[in-house]
Amino acid sequence: MSEVLRVSALGRTFGDTKVLEGVSFSLEHGERLAVLGRSGSGKTTLLRLIAGLESPTEGDIVIAGKVASRTGQVLIVPERREVALVFQGLALFPNLRALDQIAFATRGRGGVEAARSLLDRVGLRHRAKARLDELSGGERQRIALARALAQKPRLLLMDEPFASLDDEKRTEMRDLLRSLIGSAETTLILVTHSRDDAFDLARRVIVLEHGRPVADDMLETLLIHPRHAAAVRALGLGELIPGVVTARDHAATAFGKVSITPGTEPGPAVLLVRPDQPHLAADGTGVEADVLALELRPSEGREVHRIAVVRTEGCILRVFGRGHTLSVGDRVRVRIDGECNPVQG
């Protein structure tokens, strides 16, 4: 495999504010990377730097072996980077019809016939003459994707591309994108707040926190062994509770003594509690807690999971209420089974 992108010690400052700092990673041909993080963590800025729309305050960007940007300079202009960017707002031309939106990008790359072929691949051949204001949100997403792929990019950048779509349309667009980039083996960087987007489209994940990378690993590894609280939140892996490690394999928490991953140093810690670990204890064990709310979740079958949101000493957990009839305001006993993972942050 050949290296498509290398980012080294990348940073971007606006005034006195560091928006991005110390970002380094590389991507091979065909890799799919999801960039996750809270709003304002620097995700969009990272894409704009890679696309050449801004110059970095520090660091280098190398695309296909050529230095594209370095500190204070954009050395290769955006249109010559072989990089396509799909903006969150899509940035479609308001005065062009559907086919013309794509044909604008296929000039010198097959022209109108290439545009028709792409329009067909995204399922919109019958909408070729539709004006922008006649297209639905999902159709506009398909046009923006087709226009990006019409450029035959080495690297496709997508900034929250499905944010405006409902769950059903998001699923459709993820399936379409996976099909299109899979056949072309296009390298992908996807910025998203949706863990489902990451699960379906990425194999590797970077999590940004306050502009700095706090996690960078294969998705499967992060799901099993997250090391930072930001990764836990971004991937929805469970609840985070404070604790104090009292021995190398135990910690004291508001929900009582819990087992932890062996080898953790004594002292304050943040602990990951997976969804299947908290239980309502009917045998007198556990710690008393108040039921604040009741939530419902679908299961894989026809059952409905009833979840109790409980609190003790200001600490909140969600507990499956299997076999229990609960009401808001009830006092229950809760225990945490299994090992909790200490994480940074």
UniProtKB/TrEMBL annotation:
Please give the PROSITE patterns that the UniProt record associates with this protein: ABC_TRANSPORTER_1, ABC_TRANSPORTER_2
Q: Which organism is it from?
A: Singulisphaera acidiphila (strain ATCC BAA-1392 / DSM 18658 / VKM B-2454 / MOB10)
Q: Name one GO molecular function term.
A: ATP binding
Question: Which protein is depicted?
Answer: ABC-type spermidine/putrescine transport system, ATPase component
Which keywords does this chain's UniProt record carry?
ATP-binding, Nucleotide-binding, Transport
> Which SUPFAM superfamilies does the record cross-reference, listed alphabetically?
P-loop containing nucleoside triphosphate hydrolases (SSF52540)
Q: Which domain of life is it from?
A: Bacteria
Q: Where is the ABC transporter domain?
A: 5-235
UniProt-listed Gene3D superfamilies: P-loop containing nucleotide triphosphate hydrolases (3.40.50.300)
